[in-house]
Amino acid sequence: MSRFVSFEKDATSKAAAAVKAQVDLDGMDEKIVGLLEAYLDEQLANNVVDEEANLMLLKFYAIYPVKLEQQQTRVAQVLAKGLMALPSNYFLGATYMVSEALRKHKDIAALLHAGEVLQSCLFPEFWTLDLAFAKKIPGFEEAVRTFIVSTIAKSHSIVAKEFVKAQLNLADKDVEKLVSEHGWTAKDSTYIVKPNADNEMRPKKFKEDIEFSDILDTIQVLSR
């Protein structure tokens, strides 16, 4: 998963600081489009994601007359970063801001479909998709695999090695290296998943909703 940053809270980079300065001065000036694009380039290079800034860029594409060809690459980059940020709602939010014209573009259509597949937990199918554009982005596949591991961990306390291998599309030694980083341990043909709030058995709680009048009626019947 990509590390989250915010130009509003930690504008430590030159590009982030430029965006913040322009937002503070005039957040609706058209020149902010170029600043947001430069900031997106920085996010791609440093494997970080600023949800607010990227969604702002998509919003301005709908406001200002930017060439469709220019938008195509940038929108695809924003969507790819969204997949890298799963399970954040950032990807879902970005999809609502993609125009019908852009949805016909090959890379954008592929990324939108990939998002549906990932969020449906159809992980083996994901690895069969043509995502050449996204795979060029530093850390893309690693971030997706981190999402897959975290998703499996939410529903399993013990899981078959072959199952995990199929979900991650990796060789055995690479699977073991990755899951060990998440605290999993190997045992025979399975992995023991590190306990978490989602994969632990919880005691069932029963709440009895009995009115006093019901108890009184029962006592009267038994007293006859």
Automatic annotation (TrEMBL):
One Pfam family per UniProt: CSN8_PSD8_EIF3K
Cytoplasm is among the record's keywords: yes
InterPro entries per record: ARM-type_fold, CSN8_PSD8_EIF3K, eIF3k, PCI_dom, Transl_init_fac_sub12_N_euk, WH-like_DNA-bd_sf, WH_DNA-bd_sf
Principal localisation: cytoplasm
Keywords: Cytoplasm, Initiation factor, Protein biosynthesis
Domain PCI: from-to ranges: 49-209
Compartment(s): Cytoplasm
GO biological process, one term: formation of cytoplasmic translation initiation complex
SUPFAM superfamilies associated with the record: ARM repeat, Winged helix' DNA-binding domain
Keyword Cytoplasm in record: yes
Gene Ontology MF terms in the entry: ribosome binding; RNA binding; translation initiation factor activity
GO cellular component, one term: eukaryotic 43S preinitiation complex
Cited function: Component of the eukaryotic translation initiation factor 3 (eIF-3) complex, which is involved in protein synthesis of a specialized repertoire of mRNAs and, together with other initiation factors, stimulates binding of mRNA and methionyl-tRNAi to the 40S ribosome. The eIF-3 complex specifically targets and initiates translation of a subset of mRNAs involved in cell proliferation.
Similarity comment: family membership: Belongs to the eIF-3 subunit K family.
Self-association state and partner proteins as the record states: Component of the eukaryotic translation initiation factor 3 (eIF-3) complex.
Protein name, as recorded: Eukaryotic translation initiation factor 3 subunit K
Organism: Achlya hypogyna
Organism classification: Eukaryota, Sar, Stramenopiles, Oomycota, Saprolegniomycetes
